[in-house]
Amino acid sequence: MSHSKQGVYVPLPQSLSDSESDKEEKSNGIESSNLKFTQPRNGHPHLPDFQHDLGKIKIKSVRKLSARRKIALTFSVFVCFLPIVILLWILPCQDTSTCSLKIGNWESSHDDVEFLGPINLIRGIFHKNWNLALIYKGSFKSSKAFKNGVLSVLGDNGAVAWDFQQESFPSEMNCTILDATNGGLYDCLVVDGKGLKAIEPVSGEALWHAHSLEGKSIPELGMPIKIDDLDKDGVNELLAVYKKSDLLIISGKTGRALSNIRLPSICSSINLLKLNSINSIKYVCTKTGDAEATYEISMQDIESKYLDSGANIKLNVVQNEANSTYIKAGNKKLVVNNINICPKCNSIVTLFDSNNTKVDSWTFDNTIIMNPIPFTFPSSRPLYSFETYIHGFILKMWYWQEDSLKLSPVTRIYKRNVPIHNETFHLNKVSERVILIILKDNDVRIENVSLTDIYLICNGPQHHNCQPNHNNQKDSLLIADLDFDNLMELISFSSTYKQIDVDGYDTWHLTSKLNVFRLESEFPKLLKNK
After folding, report:
1. Helix, strand, coil share (%) of the chain residues, nearest 5
2. How many other C-beta atoms can be found within 10 angstroms of the C-beta atom of residue 141?
3. Cβ contact 161:152 at 8 Å
4. Which residue of 25, 134, 363, 519 sits 20 to 30 Å from the alpha carbon of 437, by its own alpha carbon?
5. In 3-state terms, what secondary structure has residue 33?
């Protein structure tokens, strides 16, 4: 197409007539007849330069929103995002357990087992709260092969998370020493008659059993401590007392024995193994005549012995540590002395101030007191207007009744087809009492929390071989924040035999209860009318 001064012809669309085109141009405020083209440039006509006219155009200012409209706009935006927040963070808590839920008071019962302390806190699959782990002993008249083991329950409701059943009786457990897999969770180390094992806290599966190079189990091990990573596999090693006379280095990752450290044969037994802050090991040596001495070994010597079995170990005699039996809460100290053998036992509880001056004392006859638990709570102002915190102690005690009942030959301890003829069993009743010692200014108050009847069955009238056993109740109390709400719960367990009728026989059935009580939040209610 040749260029000309008459412009460029563009055909109209079929749907648009000439008259419609004119109307559209006029409606836009532009008339084609008023447009003038200047001299063509590069063969094309162009419009005049309007840049100098832009400054003459007045831009209408935008009115600012009033305060009322701003509030309305903000509120509407908030309402739009509120359903998203509810759907993503609030509703899923009930279904997927992705956020913390407050724990209420609960109780769970477990048949045919006797719990042993202490109570261990472990992590579950969801990290919203702590779960609980305990070792247990089966009924001594149960015929089950695997009647002992380790039980884990959910911290929010007491439901069973897992149950690790085994034949040998577990005597000790600690879930705060080792992370065998470097997964960020501490595993549970369990000591029993066959040796030492590590249990994964979420699944309840055994990770390893302590074993020799040949794969044989290693009995007579004590609860180990954690030491340095000697074999450089990324996991700390364990050091345990072996056969009450030697030290054994165990791989924390696999459970394999790495080195046996023989100590001088001057001790009939060693125990209380611990790692000092100065990077040395301390242990107590019991000699002939029950004399005790404390020895110290440097970690450098331990590592040298691991690298070279012929290396020498230097033992340093250190001063025996004072046997601190007191429990401290605030500026007060509590000392519990259990005297004699139960049921002819007595307990003396003494309270001292910070200057070791006796404040008060109580004596309990035919009683044994378990390990006390101290507590410190922020004050509830209507009750305690002059203190910032409330201090005190929780004590659990067993009080023995005078009489024991001899069970008849046809009385069955557990549901069995054959009555008991070859053994004599006695039924004994004790009263389990839980009390609070509350410290307020210079005033000391004792409040009863609970009183429960406990029935023991003993093999013979002298309270030998009894179940449940008071020694297993020593660490049956724990105060902890299970749901991370900065309020403390009281966790406790208790075991007893209870009588039920089965086929016309009086049957005594072993049962244990685990309780969680929101102690700190319920504390004002306990004292409301006191």
Report:
1. 15, 45, 45
2. 18
3. yes
4. 134
5. helix
Pairing state between β 477-480 and 489-502? antiparallel
Cβ proximity of 149 and 205 under 8 Å: no
**Distance separating alpha carbons of residues 229 and 239, to the nearest angstrom:** 11
R_g of the chain computed on alpha carbons: 39
CA distances from 74 to 21, 62, 88, 247 (A): 46, 20, 21, 69
Strands (DSSP E) along 252-410, which ranges? 257-262, 269-275, 280-286, 292-298, 316-318, 326-329, 332-339, 346-352, 358-365, 367-369, 373-378, 389-406
pLDDT tens, position by position, 316-374: 888 776 655 789 999 999 999 999 988 889 999 999 998 999 999 999 999 999 999 99
Q: Locate 286 and state its tokens.
A: 């019991």
Tokens 């700190």: give the residue: 520
d(CA 123, CA 156): 12
User: Where are the chain's structural domains?
Assistant: 1-50, 67-96, 327-530
Angle at 190 between CA 97 and CA 265, to 5 degrees: 155
Taking residue 486's Cβ as centre, other Cβ atoms within 10 Å add up to 8
